[in-house]
Amino acid sequence: MSEFNDVTIVKAANIYFDGKVTSRAVKFADGSRKTLGIMMPGEYNFDTAEAEIMEILAGKMDVKLPGSDEWQTFTAGHSFDVPANANFGLVVHEVTDYCCSYIAG
Questions:
Q1: Who contacts 88 (Cβ-Cβ below 8 Å, separation ≥6)?
Q2: How far, in Å, CA of 4 to CA of 63, rounded?
Q3: Domains identified in the chain and CATH numbers
Q4: Dihedral, CA atoms, 60, 92, 96, 80, nearest 10 degrees?
Q5: What pLDDT does residue 105 have?
Q6: How far is CA 30 from CA 6, 11, 58, 104, in A?
């Protein structure tokens, strides 16, 4: 899906890591939500409250998922799942455009 219809966009940005990671919240009529964002090159560590699916729209990153000692590379057109209440690491190699979908649980 290259676009979303009939949504509400939250104007205020989510800003992390001194502005190196930013996103905007997108709310859907059915109550679901996503964030659309950009990550600059760097190393990041995130905590989740909700389960999520991270879709890479452009760029390249290595991901260390919860419970794994292995790094996996993800590029445009690929996605990965992160469980709720977890921590995961990222090494972003180039400016990366992403869409994060939150999974109601």
A1: 45, 46, 48, 63, 64, 65, 66, 82
A2: 27
A3: 7-103 (2.60.120.10)
A4: 70
A5: 64
A6: 11, 20, 27, 11
C-alpha 85/C-alpha 92 separation (Å) is 22
Token duo for residue 25: 């919240």
What is the rounded CA–CA span in Å between residue 12 and residue 86? 25
Q: Model's pTM, two decimal places?
A: 0.92
Question: What DSSP character marks residue 104?
Answer: P
Q: What is the pLDDT of residues 44-94, one digit of tens each?
A: 999 999 999 999 999 999 999 999 999 999 999 999 999 999 999 999 999
Sequence-distant (≥ 6) Cβ neighbours of residue 24 within 8 angstroms: 9, 10, 11, 13, 14, 35, 36, 37
